[in-house]
Design goal:
Elements: E1 2-4, E2 10-16, H1 25-43, E3 48-53, H2 56-64, H3 66-78, E4 81-87, H4 111-127, E5 134-139, H5 150-174, E6 177-182, H6 193-203, E7 208-213, H7 214-219, H8 224-233, E8 238-243, E9 245-249, H9 255-262, E10 273-277, E11 280-284, H10 287-291, E12 302-308, E13 318-320, H11 322-333, E14 342-345, H12 362-382, E15 386-387
Parallel strand pairs: 2-3, 2-14, 3-4, 4-5, 5-6, 6-7, 7-8, 8-14
Antiparallel strand pairs: 1-2, 1-15, 9-12, 9-13, 10-11, 10-12
Helix pairs in contact: 1-12, 2-3, 2-4, 4-5
């Protein structure tokens, strides 16, 4: 979906296909047929943007087989879909029964991460619509915190600098300008937007910036205006923003609130949980750990890294951090000029919701994704952006 900003520029809205994980190119083509095109039709649009997730094997197949890449581009055009952004965070196995910590491997100190992201950039340069010259790729925020030392930090810095040089060369070759955004996430080396300032400033290249995920922003209790102002002041480019909402519990000391939270403690994904105390931010790596005894102070609200559907906040006594998303979006695209032109709805946890909230059929998932995109569209038009055909 495309929108015209009052300054005349185009803002792209997509939804991320990591909600339909597939490891192979055939699986990706099936996603387009079974999910993405039906979402577009459900919205009544001739064109729909998707934030494509390509696992390692699918990306490698595309970059080594020009005919396969042409086939994917043809399939996108045939189904009324367009790609201006990729989700390069998960490397593989995002559809596994247990993902948890594995989603952070390989990290930016490992050669495989640079190789994979280079493949993604080469693919995206060929998938961009003919009238679009700028693309974006989100990626993990360097590494998970526990195995990251100075040696690995130096290796990650070198890899990202090498990537920037490759993106420069790709621009010269194709005329397509691609940028990479580190996506701050709780528990990682770069947990907050503030944590991103030092490494990104050290790299000092406008092709390496930040991806602002509004669920992660909220989980870490960052104020959107303060965070985005600091990025602007440091001249860190906001490559893209993922529109998502976290799980919020206002009174986590109450038994009924803990019982409601326990329904979201599931075995597939990591749900980092945070609370803001007088002494600063406190947290656990997973929701179950927070619920076990007194691992996390409960005198103040808790927020958990669980991407809940934008249009359907959990029932009381829980809610979502949609107000944080609204505030961030106002600052991102509500000013005289957009701070980013790429927006992506990213609720990948539909099948991890409590059983009674999960879609039971493909059509229900299509309806849910369409409802999220409708809400995002309404937020954009409320900010005076005009939806384009």
């Amino acid at each position: 979906m495309r929108f015209r900003h009052p300054d005349g520029s185009t803002v792209h809205l997509a939804y991320c296909t990591n909600v339909h994980p597939a490891e192979t190119l055939d699986g990706v083509l099936a996603q387009l047929r079974d999910h993405c095109e039906p979402v577009r039709r459900r919205l009544g649009r001739d064109r729909l943007g998707i934030g494509l997730w390509l696992a390692r094997d699918a990306a490698h197949a595309l970059v080594t087989d020009p005919s396969a890449l042409r086939g994917l581009r043809t399939a996108l055009e045939h189904r009324g879909l367009e790609v201006v952004t990729l989700n390069g965070f998960p490397y593989e196995g995002f559809g596994a029964e247990e993902v948890k910590y594995r989603v952070y491997q390989p990290d930016w100190a490992d050669p495989e991460r640079l190789a994979h992201t280079t493949d993604l950039a080469r693919v995206l340069a060929q998938l961009l619509p003919d009238d679009v010259t700028e693309g974006s790729i989100s990626t993990l925020p360097l590494a998970w915190r526990t195995a990251y030392d100075q040696e690995r930090a130096t290796a990650a810095h070198t890899a990202l600098t090498t990537l920037a040089e490759r993106l420069d060369a790709l621009h010269e070759l194709t005329g397509r300008s691609l940028r990479i955004g580190l996506e701050p996430e709780p528990g990682c080396t770069v947990e907050t937007t503030r944590d991103a300032l030092a490494p990104l400033t050290a790299i000092g290249h406008d092709r390496i910036g930040i991806c602002v995920d509004t669920c992660h922003l909220a989980t870490s209790f960052e104020d959107p205006h303060t965070a985005l102002d600091a990025l602007a002041q440091a001249r860190v480019p906001i490559v893209k923003s993922q529109l998502s909402a976290a799980l919020h519990a206002e009174h986590p000391h109450l038994p009924e609130v803990r019982a409601a939270l326990a329904a979201f403690d599931e075995p597939r994904f990591l749900h980092q949980t945070r609370t803001l105390t007088a002494a600063g931010l406190r947290g656990t790596d997973d929701l179950g750990e927070a619920l076990a005894g007194d691992a996390l102070p409960d005198a103040s609200p808790w927020r958990a890294h669980f991407h809940v559907p934008l249009h359907a906040a959990p029932a009381a006594p829980l809610t979502s951090t949609l107000p944080v998303l609204r505030a961030a979006l106002t600052r991102l695209v509500g000013g005289p000029h957009p701070l980013t032109h790429h927006l992506e709805v990213e609720t990948y946890t539909w099948q991890a919701l409590p059983p009674e909230l999960r879609p039971r059929a493909r059509a229900q998932l299509v309806d849910g994704i369409a409802a999220e995109l409708t809400l995002a569209r309404d937020l954009l038009t409320d900010l005076s952006l005009k939806e384009l055909p």
